[in-house]
Predict the 3D structure of the following.
Amino acid sequence: MYFEPENPKKRIRNEGLAASVLGTIFFVIGVAGGGVGLLLIGILCAAAGATTLKITEMGTVWVGLSDEERAAAWPGRVAGWVPLACVVIWIGLMAFVGNMVGRR
């Protein structure tokens, strides 16, 4: 067996999709809860994800992009993994706290 590196096109597409989906979820939670902060973050995340997907043509193009296009695509890539990482950390903390409380 040999090591095959991850395809960057899949990663770029997944980051853009995650930003769009998480932005939509944040927007809905902001509307339902009346939170202006989540509402604005949701709009910005969804817009960044959509822009990334549009510029990179659903993650198929990265090498041939100009510097301006790459700079415009980066916010969606970052917005895709940062909130997702926060959710994973939150779930991990809740599992840890639940485990510690359950021992008593």
In short: The mean pLDDT is 85. The chain has one domain: 8-102. Residues 13 and 58 are 5 Å apart (CA to CA). The radius of gyration is 17 Å.
